[in-house]
Amino acid sequence: MLWGYHRWRILANVLSLPRSHRRSIASMNAHRAAWALLPLALTAVACDNSSGGATTAAPSATSSAPEASSSAPAASVSPSAAASAAASASAAAFMAKGMGRRHVGLAGVLLRGAYEFSLTDDQKATLDKAEDGLYADAAATPWAAIKAFHTDLVAGIRASKLDGAKLQADYAALDKAVQAGQGREADALNAVHAALDATQRQALVDQIKAKRAARESREHPFVGPDGGAFDPSKRRLERLTTELTLDDAQQKAVGALLARDPTMTLAAITARRDASKKRVEALLTEFAKDVFDARKLDLTAGNGKTPHEMLEHQAAFTGALLNILHPDQREKLAVRTERMSNRPGRSFDDSESGIGVDEEPTGPRFR
Fold this sequence. Notes:
Layout: H1 2-15, H2 19-26, H3 30-51, H4 65-69, H5 79-99, H6 107-114, H7 121-132, H8 142-158, H9 164-195, H10 198-218, H11 232-244, H12 248-259, H13 266-287, H14 309-322, H15 327-341
Helix pairs in contact: 2-5, 3-5, 6-9, 6-10, 7-9, 8-9, 8-15, 11-12
């Protein structure tokens, strides 16, 4: 029982970490994770056996020197305890593998959740096979297209002029990659649905809903630094002022640009979050049914008319900002843009945050 208690405490601590930290943990090779956990489990079982009463008597104080120096017999581990520990380590490694998966559609909500669910070996193999084929060509993934966009954006910042032709090509590549990815994810989701029976499907949906409800219960509402109403444009201006060292005249000019951006109002952010939640709820409801086809559902992660819409907003704002900045400030903007693009989980994976792709979170969001 001691190992069972510690195992669930470890898993609880891992799952309570921020997403970016959990992804770092998840990147551990699954086999390494299993072998790393197995010795801990065996040690704990051995401790339980010894605490319940050792079968080998301790040497007496009057034992001879040769007897006292002999090696103590190793604690025995029953086959059932070893098998249980190995199963626990395997489950933890499988869960860690799921944390490292990336998706462009809401299918990821269910696909990732399945890795935390109790599946048979055949069902795990079905899930793994479906996931392994999603993005076999790394150069054609949405993340590769986003990386290309940011590379071209940073080059344009340093050249003091964005290359519209290159950006348009980046938008087209992103839209194509996202559309293809969502189709493959829908097929993967259909395969998982077919592999589970009705009871398992409902249990998986209930488990995902419970985890989402627990996360939402820890969330704070958006508030300003002074505890008042949250103003996204004001907060963004403060960040840009600090990072780019804007003077008073520049602050007024940038503030006017932000005021014209309809995507960064509190109402727009809230609307994006609410829309994503509704689509997730619809997906979970349909998945629990006997008849299910993910390709007939809206699996879009973002809330724009096209996958590239938010990137296009970022490019438009950046282009206008270049006309306000001095040369040294443009270099700061280039560095800032590179930093933003290298953060994990800031594209499709955080679709429900409602935050723009070129803006950082506004502080602690969980109790």
